[in-house]
Amino acid sequence: MRQTSVSQFVPRQIVSLEHQNNYLYCEVIQVVAERKLCWVRPLVLALASVESDFTEIRELVDLRMTSDLFWPVELFRPAIDTEVIPLLMQLEAGNFTSHDEKKARQQLHHFIDRFWQARSV
């Protein structure tokens, strides 16, 4: 596992967390250095499928209306502008309803559950 420095992240920076070809992108709100935690605001969950050496995003889930998270800072990596800007542009072009907000919360919780289950094995 890569080591992420607590001081590496700054507020408003976009960070990413990957699990099973799914990518959670969040905005850093604050880094709590004493506890090595990162307060993040989820933005988008990119659900991908892998076809040989090519990864294709099959679904984007708008997470901007979901709850903030406090997670260990070492789990995140800085997001690269070229990977996240197209996703955010797609979100801005979308029309999301309250039904989508419920689905977004469910998918975020499902991602979190799968992530922590995999780490506990």
How does this structure look, described?
By secondary structure, the protein is of the alpha+beta class. Helix content is 29%, strand content 39%. 21% of the residues are buried. Strands 1, 2, 3, 4, 5 and 6 form a 6-stranded antiparallel beta sheet that branches. It has helices at 81-93, 98-119; strands at residues 14-19, 22-32, 37-51, 54-62, 69-72, 77-78. The chain is built from 2 helices and 6 strands; from the N terminus they run ββββββαα. A hairpin with a 2-residue loop joins strand 1 and strand 2. The longest helix is centred in the last third of the chain and has 22 residues, at 98-119.
Structural class: alpha+beta
List the uncertain runs: none
- Principal-axes geometry comes out as globular
Determine the N-to-C terminus distance: 15 Å
The tally of helices reads 2
Give a quick account of the main beta sheet: strands, pairing sense, barrel closure.
6 strands, antiparallel
How many β strands by DSSP? 6
Order of helices and strands: EEEEEEHH
Helix content: 25-40%
State mean pLDDT (0 to 100 scale): 87
Radius of gyration of CA atoms, rounded to a whole number: 14 Å
In percent terms, what proportion of residues is strand? 35-45%
